[in-house]
Amino acid sequence: MPVRLNITIDEDVHERLKRELPAKGMSRFINDAIRARFRPSRAALNEAYKTAAREQWRKAEARDWKVTDVEDWPA
User: Which of 19, 66, 67, 72 has a 20 to 30 Å separation from 35 between CA atoms?
Assistant: First the structure.
């Protein structure tokens, strides 16, 4: 549920937002920008890694590259 928030930003930033965004797009833009700036949580990253580990094409790709992992490396 949206929450109303009063913030302070530089005047030039506000002018650019008004100039470049649709009339009702400022809140959405700011919300999206803040979300993009946040780092994903550790739980979200762990879940993404687990999901990726189950994908068969990734396993096949890893098998194809496995021989290059040790090639020409000192023992």
Answer: 19
In three-state form (DSSP H/G/I as H, E/B as E, the rest C), the secondary structure along 52-75 is HHCCHHHHHHHHHHHHHHHCCCCC
pLDDT in tens, 18-73: 999 998 999 999 999 999 888 888 999 999 999 999 999 999 998 888 877 666 67
Give dist(CA 53, CA 58) in Å, integer. 7
Give phi and psi for 3, each to the nearest 5.
-120, 135
- 45: which 2 tokens? 């990253």
For residues 74 and 67, give the distance between their C-alpha atoms in angstroms, rounded to a whole number. Answer: 14
What residues contact 58, with CB distance under 8 A and at least 6 apart?
Answer: 52
